[in-house]
Amino acid sequence: MIELARVWVQYHKPHWALSDINLTINKGEFCYITGPSGSGKTTLLRTLNREVIPTHGQVFVAGRNVGQLPDPKVHLLRRVMGIVFQDFRLLPHKRVFDNVAIALRVQGIPPRDLKRRVFIALRMVSMHHRIWDFPSELSYGEQQRVAVARAVVNNPAILLADEPTGNLDPELASELMGLFQEINRQGTTVVLCTHDRDLIRRFGGRIVLLHEGKLQPRGRT
Asked: Taking a C-beta distance cutoff of 8 angstroms, is the pair 200, 26 a contact?
C-alpha cells in the first residue's frame, strides 16, 4: 500500500529533514509515526500526499510513484486518501455539511448521492445533528470530528492524520483514537503522526520511530 525507498528530503543545506528512509506500510495496517518535535514526522506524512517531493529516493502509494506523478494527476492520488490536520482546516464561513461535502463536489458527485454520503460520514463521527452549524459554533472536539468526517467521506483506502489529538483533552483524544481504530477495522490503512507515547501505549499498534530524520529500531507496543 505504501513504500518509501531510500527517501531523503532536504529543505535547507546542510540539514536533512529525512535521511535514507526505507519503510513499508501494508494494506490495512494501523501505523504510528512518532518521535520528538522536529524529528521529521510531518515531512514523512507530506511525502505520501505529494505535498513534499523527496530530494532523493522514491515514494509509492497505492501503486503510484508519487514523485513521478505530474501535477494534473495529483488529484487522482489524493482521491484514495483522507487527511486529518491538527488545526482542522475547516472553512469558517461554510456550514458543517459544506465542509464535509467539498471533496465530493469537486468530483461531481450527484446531489442525492452527495447528501447521503455526507450524512453517513457525519453519523459515523456522531456529528449528524450539527450538520447545519458553522465551525465557530462547535467545540474543539466537535471540529476535529467534522475534520475526520471530511477525510473519510470519500471512503479512502488510506487515512493520514497529523497530530490529530494535539489540541484535545485526554478524554476527547481517547474518543478520537477509538474512532480511528473503527475506521481501520473497516479496512482503511491508517498512518497517524503523534508524539503522545501514552496514547500509543494505551491503544497499541505498529510504531515507526523517527529521530533527527532517521528511522530508529522499534517494534510493537
From this structure: no
